[in-house]
Automatic annotation (TrEMBL):
Gene3D superfamilies: 3.40.50.880. This is Uncharacterized protein. It comes from the Bacteria. It holds the Pfam family DJ-1_PfpI. One of its GO terms (biological process) is regulation of DNA-templated transcription.
Length: 209
């Protein structure tokens, strides 16, 4: 099973690596980082590079598509090569998915028109401008359409575990969760806007700049 994770300049690292860490544990899965060209692509802060091993035209029919987000998504909303590839790939995938602002690219490709979807809280207005209907949920599924979106950054791990369940079974998903020891116990309970104090929200806005 081919799992395609497209990379682009200024992607958010955990958006790609979180699902990768889960999905690469599926028996017979091959996770392929794909992009406009082969070679290194740098993350949103420029500190981390991941190698794309294939171009879009070399991977036309992945079984699973996981589109990460990052500030770099904004520059790709009119990128014909990427959006055409997403549309064509979706015709053949078992599931087409996104993490964080990766949903903006699914929306720009026309895959979320009129559908509920999620994204990072900082991109809600843009997602709705692109035709989707934002809902404040960690993972949003449209299984008959084979589309799953997840919220900001860390939620990609939750989504990937759900995909393992859908592709295989719950026991295997639980086994993968155990293998990566995914047992969140954060020191603070402020991981969503609903839980965060106003001062925390303001500080988060400063850190995003």
């Amino acid at each position: 099973m081919q799992v395609a994770i497209p990379l682009f300049p200024r992607y958010t690292a955990l958006d790609a690596i979180g699902p990768y860490e889960v999905l690469q544990r599926i028996p017979d899965a091959e996770v392929i980082f794909v992009g406009h060209r082969r070679g290194e692509v740098r993350s949103d802060n420029g500190m981390l590079g991941i190698i794309c091993d294939a171009r879009f035209d070399e991977l036309p029919r992945p079984d699973l598509l996981v589109v990460p987000g990052g500030i770099g998504t904004r520059a790709l909303l009119g990128d014909t090569e990427l959006l055409d590839w997403v549309r064509e790939a979706h015709l053949h995938t078992r599931f087409t998915t996104s993490v964080c602002t990766g949903s903006l690219l699914l929306a720009a490709a026309g895959l979320l028109d009129g559908l509920t979807a999620t994204t990072h809280w900082g991109a809600v207005e843009l997602l709705e401008h692109l035709g989707a209907r934002y809902v404040d949920q960690r993972v949003v599924e449209h299984l008959p359409r084979r589309i799953v979106t997840s919220a900001g950054v860390s939620s990609g791990i939750d989504m990937a575990l759900r995909l393992v369940e859908l592709l295989l079974d719950a026991e295997t998903s639980c086994a993968v969760q155990l293998l990566i020891e995914y047992d969140p116990q954060p020191p603070f309970d402020c991981g969503s806007r609903a839980k965060a104090a106003e001062a925390v929200r303001q500080r988060a806005a400063q850190l995003r700049r």
